[in-house]
Structures are given as structure tokens and as C-alpha cells.
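Lecture notes, part 5. Sequence design as translation. It can be helpful to think of inverse folding as translation between two languages: the language of shapes and the language of residues. The source text, in C-alpha cells, appears below.
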């Protein structure tokens, strides 16, 4: 898709350079065909800008009405080209402009399939957030998760599993390709029943939100099955629960109430802690012949010995990613 390909127009050439957005706009204003196709491959200026990751050029072309669904070689649209190369800002521009997120190119491959095969995590997140079909299958029956398994994209598989992608034949595909670590993780994920089980895929912000929303750290899909707390402890044993990570937050949430764990409790428990702190301060002030030193000592005892036993984590049966 470079200038060396036959049939390129000046507009094609301008789209190869990231800083040529104004030049692109000018060429179109003086009559350049914004949908011109190169004789080799049928690529349009928008295909070129998208495959190169030139977001401002792509934005100009989208703004002037370039055809978002023009088909080039192998059935590629501009969005497919951007997703294949992991150009997330371009993907966002094209989706905002109305590009078909589930376009199927040659062999039934979608933008999500291609992003997954290359492990483009940010692009995958944008596509999924925009409503891409997680379980759309290619002509040969492979879903995005199965693509990830075949190409040994462990992080991608974890992300798709978090969002509810069906396992399909992903375990078998991973085994056939000798991707044992990925196959083992997929086998374990069969018993993941809540978003909080996906500690390796969710962000710190998402983990905090789930915990504050009442996520059950002991949730299990079956007796003896993995729980978020058990997974966090296993990660800690492997040295994979650094401060601030989702696993570390789950471990912290499992500890008795303290000023450090307070922010991870759901609303009802946090309110109970505040009420009890108020009671403790009130008791200290109502004592006969009080002294400031005695007041502080009583409040410390109340805070460090009474509240940890009086405030418990309240779990909610339904916690979603919304």
C-alpha cells in the first residue's frame, strides 16, 4: 500500500505521511477523488491512512465523506486495516464515523479477529466497547477467542474471557499448537463466575469499583472452585500481586476493617464504620472527668479493636461490568 504500488494518485501519496492532513484536505478541495482506488490492490486513500496509523489524515477523509466501506484486496475495509495493525486512534475515528464494526473480509475474518491474532489489546477494548460480536465465527468456524488460542495470545484471551466470550474449541486449539500455559489458563477460566475472578485482565480502577460495589471475594461456581481471593493468594505466592494491582486489592479487602481497607468496602459497610466511629467519639466525650489523653486512647482502642469485629464485608449476588 505504499507509493510504489501502481495506480496511486497524489492523494494516495499524501496519505502516506502523517503530517499531511492539510495537504489531503487541500487536494480534495481542488477536486482529488477521495475514493480513488489504486490499480494494484484497490486501496483507497483511507485504506492507506488507516493501515499507516495516520489518525489526522483518516479524520480528514472521514470528515469529507470518504467511503468507509470501500473494499480492497482480501475484502479489507479501512477499519479492518487499522485493527489489523493495532492503530487504535484510527479505529476510534472510523467507528465514530459509522464504519461497520463487524465487517467480514476474506474468509469471514472481522476486525476483532485480526486485532486478536496480533494481540492489540487497546484496539480489542475499543472494538468490544463499541459492540463488536465476540463470538462471530470465520468461514472455518473460528471465533476471536479461538484465534487468540491458535496464535498464543494469552493476554488477549484473558480480556475476551472477561467480557464473556464463549470458550468454544479454544482449549483444544491451544493444546494442538503446544501453547500449554494458555491452555491451562483457559481450563481454569471455565470456573470463573464473576468479573472479579479475572484479576489478570481487569484494571485497578475496575477492581476497586467491583469491591466497593459488593463483589464477593469468596464467590465460586462450584464447591472447591476458584475464588477471587484464592486466585489473589496464588498470584501473591508467585510474586505477581504488587501494591495497587487487582490481586493486591482483593487481598487487602479480605483483611479486617481498618482505615486502609475502608475504601474497599461497599456503601453499607462504610456507612456502618462511620456511624460506629461517631459512637466511639461520643462515648469518649461523655465520660466523667475526661482528659484529652484518655479520650484519644479510648478512640484508638475503639478504632483498632472494636470496629474490625463490628464491620463486615457485605457481598452482592449480582455485580456486572457496567
Amino acid at each position: 500500500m505504499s507509493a510504489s504500488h501502481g495506480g496511486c494518485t497524489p492523494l494516495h501519496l499524501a496519505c502516506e505521511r502523517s503530517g499531511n492532513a492539510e495537504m489531503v484536505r487541500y487536494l480534495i478541495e481542488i477536486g482529488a477523488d477521495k475514493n480513488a482506488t489504486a490499480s494494484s490492490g484497490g486501496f483507497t486513500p483511507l485504506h492507506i491512512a488507516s493501515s499507516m496509523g495516520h489518525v489526522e489524515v483518516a479524520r480528514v477523509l472521514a470528515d469529507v465523506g470518504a467511503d468507509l466501506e470501500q473494499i480492497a484486496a482480501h475484502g479489507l475495509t479501512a477499519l479492518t486495516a487499522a485493527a489489523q495493525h493495532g492503530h487504535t486512534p484510527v479505529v476510534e475515528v472510523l467507528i465514530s464515523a459509522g464504519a461497520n464494526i463487524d465487517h467480514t473480509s476474506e474468509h469471514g475474518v472481522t476486525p476483532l479477529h485480526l486485532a486478536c491474532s496480533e494481540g492489540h489489546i487497546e484496539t480489542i477494548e475499543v472494538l468490544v466497547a463499541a459492540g463488536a460480536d465476540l463470538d462471530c465465527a470465520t468461514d472455518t468456524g473460528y471465533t476471536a477467542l479461538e484465534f487468540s488460542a491458535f496464535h498464543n495470545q494469552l493476554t488477549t484471551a484473558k480480556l475476551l474471557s472477561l467480557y464473556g466470550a464463549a470458550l468454544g474449541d479454544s482449549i483444544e486449539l491451544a493444546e494442538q499448537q503446544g501453547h500449554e500455559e494458555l491452555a491451562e489458563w483457559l481450563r481454569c477460566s471455565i470456573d470463573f463466575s464473576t468479573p472479579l475472578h479475572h484479576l489478570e485482565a481487569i484494571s485497578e480502577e475496575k477492581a476497586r469499583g467491583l469491591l466497593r460495589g459488593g463483589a464477593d471475594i469468596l464467590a465460586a461456581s462450584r464447591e472447591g472452585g476458584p475464588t477471587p481471593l484464592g486466585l489473589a493468594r496464588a498470584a501473591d505466592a508467585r510474586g505477581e500481586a504488587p501494591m495497587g494491582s487487582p490481586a493486591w486489592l482483593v487481598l487487602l479487602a479480605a483483611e479486617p476493617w481498618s482505615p486502609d481497607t475502608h475504601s474497599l468496602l461497599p456503601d453499607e459497610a462504610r456507612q456502618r464504620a462511620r456511624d460506629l466511629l461517631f459512637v466511639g467519639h461520643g462515648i469518649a466525650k461523655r465520660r466523667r472527668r475526661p482528659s484529652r489523653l484518655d479520650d484519644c486512647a479510648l478512640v484508638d482502642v475503639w478504632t483498632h479493636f472494636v470496629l474490625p469485629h463490628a464491620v463486615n464485608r457485605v457481598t452482592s449476588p449480582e455485580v456486572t461490568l457496567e
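The translated text above is only one of many valid answers, since several sequences can fold into similar shapes. Residues 1-5, 315-322 have pLDDT under 50 and may be disordered.
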